[in-house]
């Protein structure tokens, strides 16, 4: 993803994402999800992660790594729709890429480096 220019790091907030490098909050209307990857640990299905490739309306590109189950009740409807939490939990087959692995953190790091 970094080779594709997704270098900014984002953190999910209740109603927006936060760009760590720019120290800015970005509302759902100002970003697009270009790709998404679902990671599930085979030995522990409760360890679910989503990796999002995100493009900003102001031109930057970056990534967001998020848990699929933690704090889902603390998210705005706009963010839920943008990040597709309902689809993630209820219909994983519709996701762009589903990846099962032994260690999600190691593979997420590999995907980011690619």
Question: What can you tell me about this protein's structure?
Answer:
It is a single chain. The protein is α/β, with parallel strands linked by helices and 114 residues long. The protein has one domain. 20% of the residues lie in helices and 38% in strands. The protein is built from 3 helices and 7 strands, in the order ββββββααβα. It has helices at 77-83, 85-90, 104-113, and strands at residues 8-12, 17-19, 24-26, 31-41, 48-56, 61-67, 97-101. It has a 7-stranded mixed beta sheet, with helices on one face. A hairpin with a 4-residue loop joins strand 1 and strand 2 (17-19). 23% of the residues are buried.
What gap, in angstroms, lies between the N and C termini? 5 Å
Strand order across the largest sheet: 3-2-1-6-5-4-7
Shape estimate: globular
Mean pLDDT: 77
Question: Strand tally, please?
Answer: 7
């Amino acid at each position: 993803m970094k080779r594709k220019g997704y270098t900014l790091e984002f953190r999910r907030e209740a109603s927006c994402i936060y760009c760590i490098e720019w120290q800015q909050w970005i509302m759902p209307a100002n970003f697009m999800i270009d790709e998404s990857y679902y990671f599930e640990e085979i030995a522990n299905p409760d360890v679910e992660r989503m990796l999002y490739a995100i493009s900003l309306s102001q031109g930057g590109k970056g990534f967001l790594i998020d848990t699929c189950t933690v704090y889902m009740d603390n998210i705005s409807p706009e963010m839920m729709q943008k990040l597709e939490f309902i689809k993630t939990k209820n219909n994983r087959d519709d996701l762009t890429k589903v990846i099962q692995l032994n260690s999600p953190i190691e593979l997420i790091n590999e995907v980011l480096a690619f």
